[in-house]
Protein 1
Amino acid sequence: MIRGMVFALLAGMLAFPAAAQTTAVNPRVVLETSAGRVVVEVYADKAPITARNFLRYVDQKRLDGIVFYRTVKVADHFGFVQLGVQNAPAKMLPPIKHEPTSQTGIKHLDGTLSMPRLAPGSARGEFTIMVGDQPSFDADPSKPGDNLGYAAFARVVEGMDVILKIFDAPTSPTKTLQGSFKGEVPEAPVKVLAARRLPAAK
């Protein structure tokens, strides 16, 4: 009996470090903006490709100085804001493989970060933040054609009031960005001063 207890204790001690090593905590990133602080949790466990892409932009400081350049207001507190490198060659990284919501299980809920794209696999350094739940952005295999939706990969966990402030700010009725987004360009775009990972909680 004593021998059995010793073996059980040793097995438990050996198993504990392995369990500890496999317990991953999703990284958090703080966006210090000219409108306030926003913290997002990046779902590296569920959307590893898209999460890694975002974190590369953060770690290489490619998001420092970018702006929230587009606001789509479908209804009161329903739509999205968009930020990113605006296809600036010096800031862009290669496109990444598309991770549909049917694969990751991450839905486009209020505060979710996602990647706009053209064809699947063309997303690079542009990001949207949902205002309100938007299931129409999720993959839907029952639909014809390109039904893969957009790649959701993170969610705002602090500072949604800042996102709403950005969303509610006036947009220009005439401004465009290279001929696109008429009526969706903010009058005074909010700048991302810095984007940094937060230290992991101990």
Protein 2
Amino acid sequence: MFGQRKKIKEILQHGIAGDKVTIMGWVRTFRNNQFIAIQDGSSQRNFQIVMPEGILSESDLKRITTGASLKVKGEVVNSTGKGQALELKATSIEILGDSDPEKYPLQPKKHSLEFLREKAHLRFRTNTFGAVFRIRHSLAFAIHQFFHERGFIYLHSPVITASDAEGAGEMFRVTTLPLDQLPKTEENEINFREDFFGKSTHLTVSGQLEAELAATAFGDVYTFGPTFRAENSNTTRHLAEFWMIEPEMAFYDIEDNMNLAEAFIKAIIQFVLDHNKEDLDFLAERLAEEEKSLPVDKRSEMGLLEKLQLVCREPFERITYTEAIEILQASSYYKKKKFKFDVQWGIDLQSEHERYLVEKHFKKPVIVTAYPEGIKAFYMRMNADGKTVAAMDILAPGIGEIVGGSQREERLDKLLDRMEKMNVPTAEMQWYLDIRRFGTVPHAGFGLGFERIVQFVTGMGNIRDVIPFARTPKNCEF
């Protein structure tokens, strides 16, 4: 009966000597035909099983190999060994699944992250990825809790859409048309009227526009779902499929938006600090060890835990885009030409610029506001200066931009002007314009790439290591 099993985490936290328990998990190591280290995924730590002589036959002993799954009944006893207070003295062991030691790729030794990416279906079983994905779970839970406690409505925005929220054009098309014999119009263009939806559709890049609609009814809403970008970017910061959290709030201005975003980031990081100490300690130690191989000037100035505690403790610095450009141009990095990309008013800040601001200049998270209108999306509210929009980006140490948001343009005439200037088709967006026609209100929102915050909290250097199965150019395994 499997429902009687106890999870290792529960035994380690609340178990007492004399408890009779049943545990199940996967073998990590087996030594001296007596000591089995077992893992069930609930904790960073293994649990030691002491197996009395004669409990298994010689043939079954040979089946206890790394990766094999076991069901073990026994008595919790005080441990005399180092590293654990309790262990399990087995009274019966059942081998549920064998693991051929000649073929199982995750033997008890250190594996590179590159190797584990090729074994993504098995890498959850390692200490590193066990910690990463338990923290990913905690962050997801904390996100829902944060918004629920503040009265937000959770909105499921569509994955398939005919609108482009970003105007970037880098989208995955959705179609049922036969690719070997596409129907054409008289103008020799693809006839999407014959497609499943009767028009050109694609996978969503954002749930923001739909969230704006809901915010004008419920006040405060948020989406949390998959989004897609068909960018041919093979970098440590980009994925073709990723998850986004996008709150949208009626009766909010840019200041309210910044306040909420800062409180949000602090709250979800604090949740992980409070609930994932074991996993964070392991990842902090792993990161510190990894950085020993880097040149001194490439190492982080603070450890993982120190960085997370700083974010939760210190108010975020707030500067305008213009002030950011002035700081960068006055820096020794700019004067000594250490930046790869030039720094001039009107450019889109690059990751190296963002990281300089947070890591070298302010040494804490920074919120940059009032960006030039030419580098931001059509829906952002025009400022009184006629040159900038009420946008805000939150920059974090080690990663750069982690949140992007804005006060939305609620004035119909201004929005129409911006859409015309940026060649956004108004005929297809009448549903979006209607919320400016019928009871328009100041409103704002932001987007947080979920994998970016997981990457920040875990200290992992590659975004492909914080999502279960990465979707990247030329890669769609599993």
Protein 3
Amino acid sequence: MANVAVVGSQWGDEGKGKIVDWLSERAEVVVRFQGGHNAGHTLVIEGETYKLSALPSGVVRRGKLSIIGNGVVVDPWALLEEINGLRSQGVSISPESLRIAENAPLILPLHGELDRAKEKVKAEKNSGVGKIGTTGRGIGPAYEDKIARRAIRMGDLADPDVLARKVDDLLLHHNALRRGLGETQIEAPPLVAQLLDLAPKLLPYAEPVWLRLADLKRRGARILFEGAQGAMLDVDHGTYPFVTSSNTLAAAAALGSGTGPDVVGYVLGITKAYTTRVGEGPFPTELDDDVGRGLGERGHEFGTVTSRPRRCGWFDAVMVRQAIKIGGIHGMALTKLDVLDGMETLKICTAYRHYGQTLHHLPSGVSTQAGVEPIYEEMEGWPDSTRGARSFADLPAQAVKYIKRLEELVEAPVALLSTSPDREDTILLRDPFAD
């Protein structure tokens, strides 16, 4: 039986949380391997809505082990708040059900402050041009500190002397930045005290999770790897610089959890039946009209974490096909098909036009990305509802034609079909765990 990695094939917000939750019923462990609490997942289970940011989506299922891998940057205050919030909804979370990599970097308050200060300066100096559109939660600065070898990591909370020394080293860098940005400097003792206060609350969850994963692999346990954001936000392969600060592709699952690449078997790409994006950056199929606004209203397109309205547009087969190639995606989980119900005509982007040249990929250059124009093919829509359908036979004929055409254009099959946010409204066409 294959292990499964679930990743986004667009710009995030594709509905990964529901699909991971649905698949987790048949997995023993769910592993988050990158990103931070800037990635929001919404689950609807028996009428109850759960909003997750840092925690793996499997936490809402009893008897499952959830792991936060070393590739995740962890805001300890936000994590504890999220845990307490879920407990208030009746979800049981304990060190027996949740483990955190001891080498996971921490997001500190200074990271969020730096994130917001830099975006503010860019906005003031360039009238908003050059802004990345971050969530302001410190994800990027935390990853910068990790790469520069000055991060405070989960395991450092267990050694006060090491922690104090590392905070001094960290502030040597950050206070210089803060002076340049006109921010007040940070004193080390209060920050160390804050972290030591957190230590007894967090350390019971910490362990070398690579050891646990090695044991799970040896026993043949089913592992579900959960990615955040989407392929086009990957720091290497996305619409750079309007990307996140980590690798979002399935290849990152091994590095971000401490296991070998052979452990990741089937790669499932979560794909929305149209396209959305939050924040700045190119968006070739964006609809700044009543059609786009209608998609946003029917699809309730607001960020789980930021509550920012998502930009909406037609399905971009060029982008998804590219994500499938670079991400090693074996099959798609198509979500939000029901949002297209009742539309007379649908459009699919099959190529781009750039100064008379036809392109069949999204180029890496910033100016070229901003200048491409979509080439569309039109399809007839369907008047009937697909919402809540639990069998492929229940779908209108034109909806089936739309799905089949998407499969042809992106060169990958649809393995799962989600027809509403509810856990049970899912059609299994091909079992990822069986491949």
